[in-house]
Write a structure and sequence with these properties.
This protein is α/β, with parallel strands linked by helices. The protein is 49% helix and 10% strand.
C-alpha cells in the first residue's frame, strides 16, 4: 500500500515537472512554485504526518473494540476507555498519559495496546509514531545501563519533538533493568516544557507480568467464595498491585520514582482467563482467518490448554497466547 502511494506521488511530481518545460521562461518560476506546492500537498496526503488526517482518536471505535474483542477483562476495558478518552479529549493535558498494564501471559495486555493504536493512528501499530521497546531486545546488557539511559532519553525526545502525539510501549517491564525507566521520569512529570519540548500529549504504556500473582490470588478468592468475576472491582486490586510491583525486585518498576511520585496514572489489572474466554478467543481467531467459526473446534482448542488450580481447571495458564498455533493443529 505504501509503495503504491509512493509510485503515485512520483508520477504526479514527474508530470508536474513535464508541465514546467512547456511554459515560457517568464512563467517558469510561477509554475515551479505551483509544482512544489502540489508536490508537498500530495506528499502530505500519502505520507504519514503528524496531523489530524493521520492522528484522530476514535472513542466509539475503541469502545466497540474493547467490548467485542477483549474477553474477560471488564476492569481493564473500563479503565482503558475512560483513561484514553479523557486524555485525548483534553487539548491541554498537564502531563503525558501513563498506563501500567499488569497480568499473566496471554490475558490481553499487548492486544489492548494494539487496539489503542488502531483507534488513534490511521496506520495503527504500523504508524511511525508508535514506538515499541522490548527489554531483552533493546536493553539486554546490565553493564550498558548508562548507555541505554542516554539512548532512551534521546530517542523519546527526538520522537516527541517530531510528533507530540507519540506513543511509547515498553514490553517485558518485569525483565527490565531496575533504574532504567527512571531515566525518563522528567518526561512523565508535570512540566510545561523541557529544553523547549512538551511531552504532555504523549502516551506511555508499560506491559508487565509483575503483580500477576496478586491479581490471580484475588480472582481465586472470588471463585472459591462463589462470587462472579464481574464483581471484582479496581479497588479490590489496585493497592495490592501497585505495592507488589513497587516491591518486586524482578520488576522494572522496582522502587521506581515513577510510582513514588505518582506519575503512573493507572495500574490496570488483567484477570486470568477462564475456559469460556479461551473459546471466545478461538472463535475470534477463526473469524479473523476468514473461516466459519466452529464451536466444536473452539472447545477442542480450549480443552487442550493447561489450567490451574490443577484439579479444578479454572484459569488458563497461558490465557489465549497459544490459540493461533493450537488452531493450526485442529483446522
Amino acid at each position: 500500500m505504501k509503495t503504491a502511494r509512493l509510485h503515485l506521488l512520483l508520477y504526479v511530481i514527474s508530470s508536474a515537472s513535464v508541465l514546467v518545460n512547456t511554459f515560457e521562461p517568464i512563467t517558469t518560476t510561477v509554475v515551479l512554485g505551483v509544482s512544489a506546492a502540489l508536490g508537498r500537498t500530495i506528499w502530505n496526503y500519502f505520507h504519514e504526518s503528524c496531523d489530524p488526517k493521520w492522528i484522530a482518536f476514535n472513542a466509539t471505535g475503541l469502545e466497540a473494540d474493547l467490548e467485542s474483542k477483549l474477553y474477560g477483562q471488564h476492569i481493564a476495558s473500563r479503565i482503558i476507555l475512560k483513561a484514553v478518552s479523557g486524555f485525548m479529549s483534553n487539548d491541554n493535558p498537564k502531563k503525558p498519559l501513563v498506563l501500567s498494564l499488569h497480568g499473566w501471559t496471554g490475558t490481553g495486555k499487548n492486544f489492548v495496546s494494539q487496539l489503542i493504536a488502531e483507534n488513534l493512528y490511521k496506520e495503527g501499530m504500523d504508524s511511525s509514531f508508535v514506538h515499541i521497546f522490548t527489554s531483552e531486545l533493546h536493553f539486554p546488557h546490565s553493564s550498558q545501563l548508562d548507555t541505554y539511559k542516554s539512548q532512551l532519553q534521546q530517542w523519546i525526545k527526538g520522537n516527541v519533538t517530531n510528533c507530540a502525539h507519540s506513543m511509547f510501549i515498553f514490553d517485558e517491564m518485569d525483565k527490565m533493568h531496575p533504574g532504567l525507566i527512571d531515566s525518563i521520569k522528567p518526561y512523565l512529570d508535570y512540566y510545561d516544557k523541557l529544553d523547549g519540548v512538551s511531552y504532555r500529549k504523549a502516551i506511555f504504556i508499560f506491559l508487565s507480568n509483575a503483580g500477576a500473582d496478586s491479581i490471580i490470588q484475588t480472582a481465586l478468592e472470588f471463585w472459591k467464595t462463589g462470587r462472579n468475576r464481574e464483581e471484582i472491582e479496581l479497588r479490590d486490586l489496585e493497592t495490592a498491585l501497585s505495592l507488589s510491583v513497587f516491591n518486586n525486585k524482578k520488576s522494572g518498576l522496582w522502587h521506581t520514582s515513577l510510582i513514588d511520585k505518582n506519575l503512573v496514572d493507572f495500574f490496570v489489572p488483567f484477570l486470568p482467563l477462564e475456559y469460556q474466554h479461551v473459546v471466545q478467543c478461538a472463535l475470534a481467531e477463526m473469524k479473523a482467518r476468514g473461516l466459519k467459526p466452529d464451536k466444536k473446534v473452539a472447545d477442542q482448542v480450549a480443552r487442550d490448554l493447561v489450567y490451574f488450580p490443577k484439579s479444578e481447571r479454572v484459569f488458563a495458564v497461558k490465557g489465549c497466547k497459544t490459540i493461533e498455533s493450537k488452531l493450526d493443529y485442529y483446522t
